[in-house]
Specification:
A hairpin with a 7-residue loop joins strand 15 and strand 16. By secondary structure, the chain is α/β, with parallel strands linked by helices. It folds into two domains: about 35-190, Rossmann fold (3-Layer(aba) Sandwich); about 210-450, Rossmann fold (3-Layer(aba) Sandwich). The strands form three sheets. An eight-stranded mixed β-sheet has the order 11-10-9-12-13-14-15-16, with helices on one face. Strands 3-2-1-4-5-6-7 form a seven-stranded mixed β-sheet, with helices on one face. It has 13 helices and 17 strands.
Length: about 450
């Protein structure tokens, strides 16, 4: 070990290689991540298209947290950022702030991604084209797959394409999916579970956006919700009231999983960091810095639609007791076999939240303390308490949380536009084609909205 480590500083993606036994030490796991890189080629569209900028900034933000060799961006014009994700700065500065490197020479040992009409040339390594249209987004092999229109889409679609690209790039480097780089991966947010490469004839133009929301938890998922909300075309975000609830501080480990957490934020309250980010983009945010639970009660006048992203079973069991009219809840898998899994539930539904999660209260995941990397830490002097805490933390990657976030935010958008309401959606980022979704009867969305334009 070269530096001390504990459960608050452990890189959550390095933990994947520790838990599955491929890395015999933490240093070996980190060394693996430091060999993973990605080159992004951008076309001229990025200068004038907020969608292309959304795709670029989202991909840089996600990929740099797991591909630690670096994220190179080639072809970036000298242009202002017109995306609300990074206002009042140049596009190059926005890329650098998120961890990308602008205008380097091509690294032939890295796979690549294309945004827009750029041509990366020939390479034997995977090359993904990010593409989107309407409510659909994803990646296709650059030399084989189709390219969508990319001009008329909901703001989530290019962000979804970026998350799919980050997931495929990591799978390629990790060597844990044979077809990574040789297949199309994406989702239809209008009809989750359908073939995303086929246009939906009833896909509506985006007209309405949610205006009053309560975020429960501001970790990986909660920060993804905030990022995606800023991707939507609000004409006046000051009309959007957001209650942000979280009691926790940002730890070093959050830099590896959460899109609004950076090294300079360590030690600050998550709610305050996220509120500052949203306020800088014009939203009207309030914070509640205590745990969510059975004691939480929404007051009259506060947002009645809640987005939940906590991994605590006791808190999730109490979701229907706080007085919300609608709850959209997301959870992520854990462990080396399930960290790419995701599930979304909505309430009210045919099952109560307490029925789903009460049986999980107090359950613990299977311990990985016997794996070589943890035994090496024990030999190096880590006590049993510290070792148990370290082993109990989940494997985490930011792109799974962002894809789950797309499903959560799109649930609100579908209901606002008379689309199919879902009771649940579940699947794995490793196989988005197999996403399962179940419909539920729901009344018209009545929890606050604004009109685009």
């Amino acid at each position: 070990m070269t530096t001390p480590v504990d459960h608050n500083s452990l890189h959550r993606t390095a933990k994947y290689f520790m838990d599955d036994g491929r890395a015999e030490t933490l240093d070996a796991a980190m060394a693996m991540l430091r060999q993973f890189g990605l080159t992004i080629y951008v076309g001229p569209e990025v200068e004038h298209s907020a969608h292309h900028q959304t795709a670029l900034l989202t991909l840089v933000n996600l990929a740099r947290r797991t591909l630690l060799a670096g994220i190179d961006v080639i072809g970036l014009p000298d242009a202002a950022c017109i995306s609300r994700l990074a206002p009042h700065r140049s596009l190059a500065d926005a890329v650098r702030e998120l961890g990308g490197v602008v205008n380097p020479a091509t690294r032939h040992e890295w796979p690549s991604a294309i945004i827009g009409s750029s041509d990366p040339g020939d390479s034997l390594l995977p090359c993904w084209r990010l593409t989107w249209e309407g409510w659909r987004g994803g990646v296709v092999p650059a030399r084989q797959g189709p390219r969508f229109d990319e001009t008329d889409a909901i703001g989530l679609a290019p962000a979804l394409a970026a998350a799919a690209c980050a997931a495929e790039a990591f799978a390629h480097h990790a060597g844990d999916h044979l077809f990574a780089g040789r297949r199309s991966v994406g989702l239809s947010l209008w009809n989750p579970g359908a073939d995303w490469l086929v246009a939906e004839v009833d896909e509506p133009k985006l007209t309405y956006l949610p205006s009053r929301l309560w975020f429960i938890g501001l970790g990986n998922l909660g920060q993804a919700f905030a990022w995606l909300l800023a991707c939507l075309p609000y004409s006046d975000p000051s009309q959007v009231q957001l209650m942000l609830q979280d009691y926790d501080d940002i730890a070093l480990s959050n830099d590896s999983t959460s899109v609004l957490s950076f090294i300079g934020h360590v030690g600050r309250r998550k709610a305050r960091v996220v509120a500052d980010w949203l306020d800088a983009r014009g939203f009207d945010s309030f914070i509640e810095e205590r745990r969510f639970g059975a004691w939480t009660c929404r007051a009259d006048g506060e947002p009645a639609a809640a987005l939940c992203g906590v991994d605590n079973a006791l808190a999730r069991a109490a979701l229907e007791d706080a007085g919300f009219g609608l709850v959209v809840e997301a959870g992520l898998g854990a462990g080396p076999q399930a960290f790419r899994s995701l599930a979304v539930h909505t309430f009210p539904s045919s099952r109560r939240a307490s029925d789903i999660w009460s049986k999980h209260v107090g359950q613990t995941a299977e311990s990985t303390e016997n794996m070589p990397a943890y035994q090496q830490l024990k030999r190096a002097g880590m006590d049993s308490c510290g070792l148990t805490q370290l082993a109990s933390r989940t494997v985490g990657v930011p792109f799974v949380g962002l894809i789950a976030g797309c499903l959560v935010i799109s649930e609100l958008l579908r209901r606002l536009h008379g689309g199919r309401a879902l009771e649940f959606a579940s699947g794995s980022v490793a196989s988005l084609d197999d996403l399962e979704a179940g419909p539920v009867e729901a009344p018209p969305y009545s929890f606050g909205h604004v009109t685009i334009g």
